[in-house]
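Field notebook, page 334. I keep forgetting to write these up properly, so this time I am using the form the group agreed on. The chain and the ligand, tryptophan, are recorded exactly as supplied. Prediction of the bound pose follows.
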Amino acid sequence: MIDGKKVLFSGMQATGNLTLGNYLGALKNWVNLSDEYECFYSVVDLHSITVRQDPSELRQRARKLLALYIAAGLDPKKNCIYYQSHVSGHAELAWILNCFTYMGELNRMTQFKDKAAKHADNINAGLFTYPVLMAADILLYQADVVPVGKDQLQHLEITRDIAQRFNAIYGEVFTVPEPFVGKAGAKIMSLQDPAKKMSKSDENANASIYLMDDPDTVIRKFKRAVTDSEAQVKYCEEQPGIRNLIDIYCSCTDKTPEETEKEFDGKGYGEFKLAVGEAVVSVLKPLQERFEDLVKDKAYIDGIIKENADKANYYATKTLRKVQKKVGFPERVR
Ligand code: TRP
């Protein structure tokens, strides 16, 4: 608890370009949470170097992601938006937690197996202990809730196991976090294969709408979106492509699927796809404009970075000192 509010923690990697799926499924829904929760949103750059990165590109992307958080509506005075690498407590706690995590547990992580297969030439120890660093992120702030996608649930589960194991030995040190089950954001699927999630790492550029796509590109990608031969705008399992387009349309216009079916009753896919594209453009355009203004204001962004790193450090250090004491490290002499 911080000031009577529960704590919420989440992180995103600054690798790849964020998609409409990241926005409608996550970011957009985070905006109002700061009323109810004390929110920490980290740009998790320590995690990013588990695969090779170009240094200057990583730095640029991290700064852009931070600006994008703000452009998407997260007020940096109410939400702690910061770089993981600016708070050394993440790495320090991760080391300690490594000593409370078993090789066997980490061996079972499906993301490790996937990534190891994908980067067979660089299966480093950091990739293996990635979930422990993630546990440190969460436990450092005594987070009560963590909004994550399905792919990260296993990591949240191991975080809970580590916290409970540590607490069983040393007493109630860590809050045991729960997955966040608030108003779920829409799950947006690929425009080229509606059975797959829209992903920032999709090789087919037509499959994903990137948040920085210009209007022409957005419209073109929707025109090419995969549909079916039913020729009716109907929200049903048998028409996954159309259903995905309806979800996108509804998220962007705050309409319901029923209203959308009525609106496009008897109309062709061409007209519907254009309307979806235009609805998306009307959401992305103001976001892009805010983003462009923000990145120009270097002093403002720098101020936010400094202020929020200080705030994050304050809470992180509090937990870290407690943990260090518990495991038997000597007290600091002042
Ligand atoms: N591993 C997460 C992802 O790739 C990012 C992440 C790092 C995270 N630390 C976290 C998410 C802590 C939630 C909480 O999506």
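OBSERVATIONS:
- The first strand starts at residue 6 and ends at 12.
- The pocket of tryptophan is lined by residues 9-11, 13, 44, 47, 134, 137-138, 146, 148, 152 (CB under 6 Å).
FOLLOW-UP: compare against the apo run.
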